[in-house]
């Protein structure tokens, strides 16, 4: 008797249900198994075709294997594929033994030609199509894009099957994830040439592919094409657009699209509001996120656990731990059990607020409630101690991460580097960098920026400049610099009083096509503020605004530090008030 194990779908990360189904008979409890013996032959035959799944409420259900291919969740040919999930009507496709073998084959196979030859030799049984599609969907759940392309292109170019929309959509999605836009577009053209009608999922996947690649004008073209063809963009399409804009950090465009949805009377849903809460949260506008949340409740749209977590995250980014805790409690009162993502968001709030003990207490609470911390939980705790200058505690959490069997990622090393850099322990930073190389990880830009900061804080400017030069030249496979790299250089030179070097670093960033952000400008203004060059500070402030960079509280603080009399303080106060009004106008719903 063959036994298949597959994780059943549940939108909340915990608990993870396990589903056990057999090819010939449904395994149930021992008592029920004894009762089976008393069934008649016809009853046993009926039970032979039964399968099992866990529904969205966590309740065990059964279904008829013969009927499901024409009813719910089995045969997916011609039915399309649910965007963003890969499930049909909430039923998780349990892989048959044949599908398990196919899955193992394509996961292990590196030679596409050999995999295709193996697929050619599969027996042509009536349920082969369902097995292959279920394998492709499972690969998507595993985020294995290359095997998806191997399977779907075999269907498209080699097999005797006539590909349907699910095959084309999976290919467009896989190529979009890999940012191979020309291939995604060629699949879309092949879809049209095959007279296969694109669904809203097809357009949604194209939109997300363009947004991920930063091709926003082409994303707008997809919306225009839908409208020209008389297909009004639905919430699914607009949500995919918003998701792409969120990942691309295009806040203003996302707000514009959201306003367009409301203007066109497109029916917004929970996902729409969750995305907009995230958009405003990542733009450091938590009160705008709260406004969206209230608007959502006002129209009777029920928030889910992802919505609450997004709002907790919005407050967490600004270190507003009390507000984050209020939302966390409201989430529990609404009947949602916090998962690891919700706990991590609350931990982040205490970390950003400078309360590492609060983050540690939430970590302990999570364990006490039976919610297992993930790698991100440990990273947040390392960061919390690092921000507070408690490098020994950060080191202890890092070691605990390894002791529980988790492998530290690049981010884990980067956060530990930052913690030791802040304490001025450059030798330990160099040890961490050596560990990183030993682990086979290539230091990314963030890790190298942390090392630059460590050298700068310790006054080892020669080492800092040597590393920065290696990043610019690409020496020894070093990661390319980003604006954060130049922010470190501008800040270090400015604090040391080397204004010429600071200006040279600012120009070098512009020469590489890197736009100065609020940190760059504020560090530059701060250098002149320390020398009480009030006029120069105002000139730089005007340049900053003209460049389209909006000041923050840190900018106002350094401007005030440049003042040497009451008149200048009044001028700066007026400027701060005006920029606050501009910021409010920018993010008006």
Automatic annotation (TrEMBL):
Keyword Transit peptide attached: yes
Highest taxon in the source lineage: Eukaryota
InterPro entries listed in its UniProt record: Mito_RNA-Proc/Resp, PPR_rpt, PROP1-like_PPR_dom, TPR-like_helical_dom_sf
Per-repeat ranges for PPR: 164-198, 199-233, 234-268, 269-303, 304-338, 339-373, 374-408, 409-443, 444-478, 482-516, 517-551
Keyword Transit peptide belongs to the record: yes
Alphabetical UniProt keywords: Repeat, Transit peptide
Domain annotation PROP1-like PPR: ranges: 251-389
Protein's recorded name: PROP1-like PPR domain-containing protein
Organism of derivation: Urochloa decumbens
């Amino acid at each position: 008797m063959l036994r298949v194990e597959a994780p059943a779908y549940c939108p909340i990360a915990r608990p993870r249900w396990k589903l056990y189904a057999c090819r010939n008979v449904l395994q149930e409890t021992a008592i029920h198994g004894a009762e089976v013996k008393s069934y008649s032959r016809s009853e046993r035959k009926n039970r032979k075709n039964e399968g099992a799944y866990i529904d969205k409420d966590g309740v065990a259900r059964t279904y008829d294997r013969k009927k499901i291919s024409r009813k719910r969740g089995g045969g997916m040919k011609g039915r399309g594929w649910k965007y963003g999930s890969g499930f049909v009507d909430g039923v998780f496709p349990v892989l048959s033994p044949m599908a398990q073998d196919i899955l193992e084959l394509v996961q292990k196979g590196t030679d596409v030609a050999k995999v295709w030859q193996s697929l050619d030799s599969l027996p042509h049984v009536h349920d082969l199509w369902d097995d292959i599609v279920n394998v492709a969907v499972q690969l998507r759940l595993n985020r294995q894009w290359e095997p998806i392309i191997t399977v779907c292109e075999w269907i498209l170019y080699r097999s005797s099957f006539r590909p349907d929309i699910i095959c084309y959509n999976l290919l467009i999605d896989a190529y979009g994830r890999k940012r191979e836009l020309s291939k995604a577009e060629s699949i879309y053209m092949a879809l049209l040439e095959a007279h296969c009608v694109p669904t809203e999922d097809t357009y949604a996947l194209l939109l997300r592919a363009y947004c991920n690649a930063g091709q926003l004008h082409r994303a707008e073209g997809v919306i225009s094409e839908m409208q020209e063809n008389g297909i009004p963009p639905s919430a699914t399409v607009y949500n995919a657009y918003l998701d792409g804009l969120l990942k691309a950090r295009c806040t203003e465009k996302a707000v514009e699209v959201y306003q367009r949805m409301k203007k066109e009377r497109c029916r917004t849903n929970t996902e729409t509001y969750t995305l907009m809460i995230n958009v405003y949260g990542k733009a450091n506008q938590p009160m705008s996120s709260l406004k969206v949340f209230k608007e959502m409740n006002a129209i009777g749209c029920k928030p889910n656990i992802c919505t609450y977590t997004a709002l907790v995250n919005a407050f967490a980014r600004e270190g507003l731990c009390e507000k984050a805790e209020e939302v966390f409690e409201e989430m529990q009162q609404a009947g949602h059990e916090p998962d690891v993502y919700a706990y991590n968001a609350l931990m982040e709030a205490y970390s950003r607020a400078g309360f590492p003990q609060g983050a540690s207490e939430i970590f302990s609470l999570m364990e006490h409630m039976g919610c297992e911390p993930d790698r991100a939980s440990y990273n947040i705790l390392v960061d919390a101690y690092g921000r507070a200058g408690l490098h020994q505690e950060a080191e202890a959490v890092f070691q605990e991460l390894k002791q529980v069997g988790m492998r530290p990622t690049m981010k884990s090393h980067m956060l530990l580097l930052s913690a030791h850099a802040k304490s001025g322990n450059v030798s330990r930073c160099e040890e961490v960098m050596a560990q990183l190389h030993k682990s086979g990880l290539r230091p990314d830009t963030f890790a190298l920026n942390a090392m630059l900061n460590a050298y700068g804080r310790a006054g080892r400017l020669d080492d800092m400049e040597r590393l920065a030069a290696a990043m610019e030249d690409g020496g020894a496979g070093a990661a390319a610099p980003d604006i954060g790299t130049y922010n470190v250089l501008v800040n270090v030179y400015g604090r040391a009083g080397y204004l010429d070097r600071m200006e040279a670093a600012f120009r070098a960033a512009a020469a590489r096509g890197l736009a100065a952000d609020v940190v760059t400008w504020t560090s530059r203004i701060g250098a002149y503020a320390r020398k009480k060059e009030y006029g120069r500070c105002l000139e730089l402030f005007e340049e900053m605004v003209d460049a389209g960079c909006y000041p923050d509280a840190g900018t106002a603080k350094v401007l005030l530090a440049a003042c040497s009399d009451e008149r200048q303080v009044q001028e700066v106060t007026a400027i701060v008030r005006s920029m606050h009004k501009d910021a409010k106008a920018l993010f008006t719903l």
